[in-house]
Design a protein that fits this description.
single chain; about 230 residues; alpha/beta; BirA Bifunctional Protein, domain 2; 8-stranded mixed beta sheet; 5 helices
Length: about 230
């Protein structure tokens, strides 16, 4: 029997309040106050730099960031710099790995597999690249992954480019990898994709890979600082 997973589809919310709520959910999950939880979100243009990341991989100064309407946030996940923005699917699993595989590398591979299988539903052959974290199609990165574990409960997660404006990636060295371009489903398929449909397919694969049954929760229980933004 599959374990329960609370699912929140939050829409476009500011990055930092969402990060703070993740921290609260991690504590609640550690205390068994909530089941495993999956947050699906979209953020306004935001560049995040993981601990141990290289500041030089942000190529834009504060003036340029202001011009393009983006913010820069230093955060506590692994990995280097990445972009979160409109028309991405960003998924934050708050799951207790003691109930799954007690192995961070296996967890990362499972997150990759969810994306690989979802892309396959669009006829795309998405793959891993040896020695790197993330998912690639035709040599270009379509999904970036960065996580943090606290007492074996996960936070942060994966950002998948759907109809994303790839111009935002010109202002960083994505994930610190200068030799690999970035792509999106829109670029690969040559057309806009239905983002809600992709999210449903992603959840289906997430349930399959992690042996969970997601139950959509009302956003009425979401903290008020997570109000939808434009």
């Amino acid at each position: 029997m599959k374990m329960k997973c609370d699912l929140y589809n939050l829409g476009r919310v500011a990055y930092e309040p969402c990060w703070e709520w993740q921290k609260e959910l991690v504590v609640q999950r550690q205390q068994e106050a909530i089941p495993d939880t999956l947050l699906l979100v979209e953020h306004p243009p935001t560049y995040t730099l993981g601990k141990g990341g290289d500041d030089n991989n942000l190529l834009a100064d504060p003036r340029v960031l202001k011009e393009i309407g983006a913010q820069f946030v230093r955060i506590d996940r692994g990995g280097d710099i990445t972009f979160h923005g409109p028309s991405q699917l960003v998924a934050y699993p708050i799951i207790k790995l003691r109930d799954h595989k007690l192995d961070v590398h296996a967890y990362l591979r499972d997150l990759e597999e969810v994306t690989i299988q979802t892309c396959a539903e669009y006829g795309l052959e998405a793959v891993r690249v040896e020695g790197m974290t993330g998912v690639w199609v035709n040599g270009a990165k379509i999904a970036a992954i960065g996580v943090r574990l606290s007492r074996w409960v996960s936070m942060h997660g994966i950002a998948i480019n759907l109809n994303t404006d790839l111009n935002y990636f010109k202002y960083i060295v994505p994930c610190g990898i200068a030799s690999k371009p970035v792509t999106s489903l829109k670029e690969l398929l040559g057309k806009e994709i239905d983002e809600k449909e992709f999210a449903k397919k992603f959840v289906k694969q997430f349930e399959k890979i992690f042996s969970l049954k997601c139950e959509l929760k009302s956003n009425e229980s979401v903290p008020p600082q997570l109000a939808v933004v434009e």
